[in-house]
Request: fold
Amino acid sequence: MGTHYQGPPEVRRALDAYIKLVRASESVTSRVVRHLDDDGLTASQFGVLEALFFIGPLSQRELAQKILKSGGNVTMVIDNLEKRGLVKRERKEEDRRLYRITLTPTGHKLIKSIFPRHAAKIVSQMNILTKEELRELGHLCRKLGLQQAEDRS
Reply:
């Protein structure tokens, strides 16, 4: 479904593409993250665990930037992961005001077991596109994402 707006063609095209982008993203995401319920995780919690697994310890601010969430949201996500014993906060020696978030052994084991299933879900959802379409989609998404960075300037 596209836009029903009857304005100028360039506005209708932009709105139509935006609506389709958002709907596709939300549709694919809902199917991909459904399995996280089995492990009692939200998409944001999974995002934090995944970032720590692949990148290593990060500050809360860095985590917020990586998973595109607000600082307050990430604080709540980390609080809940910490209660479950999946992550821990450690004060940074060089700046005692900042915390470094790390995976616990339990958190490491959980994300290591979940990630292959998660990747397989993504592959199954993206298999509808050809290799070239996937490259083009990646290029277009990157182009849109980089525009956001320019808008902040």
